[in-house]
Amino acid sequence: MISVNIILLLGLVHFVADFVFQSNYVAQNKSKSNVVLLKHVVIYSLPFILFGSVIFVIINMLLHFCIDYCTSRMTSKLWAKGDVHNFFVVIGFDQFLHLCCLVLTYSLIF
After folding, report:
1. Residues contacting residue 97 through CB under 8 Å, at least 6 positions apart
2. How far apart are CA 109 and CA 18, in angstroms?
3. 3-state secondary structure 23-60
4. Residue 1 pLDDT > 90, yes or no?
5. What letter does residue 101 receive in the DSSP assignment?
6. What stretch of H or E contains 100?
7. pLDDT averaged over the chain?
8. What pLDDT is attached to residue 23?
9. Residues 109, 53: contact at Cβ < 8 Å?
10. 3-class secondary structure for 62-82?
11. Residues 53-78: what's their mean pLDDT?
């Protein structure tokens, strides 16, 4: 069973990697370009090397790309329509999916 401390650490690293380490350019353009999305995912994934497993990093890179491919395009359309509520609903669901992926892959690999 995964400890609460590991879940909190995964959440903290995820937050820093997904928000703090990202530039405005990447945040605004990952929904328009797969190259920019890939840049986002690589920047996001690097801090997870601290957990000591390349497989953990690679699996979460792939999962993060797939999730953000869908959710960034959804949020871009919602923002353009002025649908702020559903924009944040999708952002919240995106974060939930990322944390689920991190916890599940950590549990399976470690």
Report:
1. 67, 71
2. 22
3. CHHHHHHCCCCHHHHHHHHHHHHHHHHHHCCHHHHHHH
4. no
5. H
6. helix 84-109
7. 97
8. 97
9. yes
10. HHHHHHHHHHHHHHHHHHHHC
11. 98
